[in-house]
Specification:
alpha/beta
């Protein structure tokens, strides 16, 4: 399974990569902002995206909306410090499948990824 990590923090991307690796996901791409992510998505067609909200050039919520204009099915998980209920609802209305609040534990991220994929009928670890 191809996974795209979209976060302006290299540290966060590395943490996410380590968690994904523990789950058996090794085909992981990275983007530092929404503009870079759109290029990666067009070129590589990821099967899951973990997206930060606050990034330069194009924020995560704008990215989610742009993805959903043409792709309604790829699982999108917002991974962000934005914890207010209104923000969570905005993200869900924009098309995210799940929401993880930073800082997160490896266990939390793992649970959210597994829950998202199983809800969509995607085999975990494929």
């Amino acid at each position: 399974m191809k996974i795209l990590l979209v976060d302006d923090s290299r540290t966060i991307r590395n943490i996410q990569k380590n968690v994904l690796s523990q789950l058996g996901f090794t085909d992981v791409m990275e983007a530092a902002d929404g503009v870079e992510a759109l290029k990666q998505i067009a070129a590589c067609k990821p099967e899951l995206c973990l997206i930060d909200w606050n990034m330069p050039n194009m924020d995560g919520i704008t990215l989610v909306r742009k993805i959903r204009e043409t792709d309604k099915s790829t699982p999108l998980i917002m991974v962000t410090t934005e914890a207010e209920k209104s923000r969570v609802l905005e993200a869900i209305k924009s098309g995210v499948n799940n929401y993880v609040i930073k800082p997160f534990t490896a266990e939390t991220l793992s649970e959210k990824i597994n829950a998202t994929l199983s809800k969509l009928g995607v085999a975990v670890g494929s």
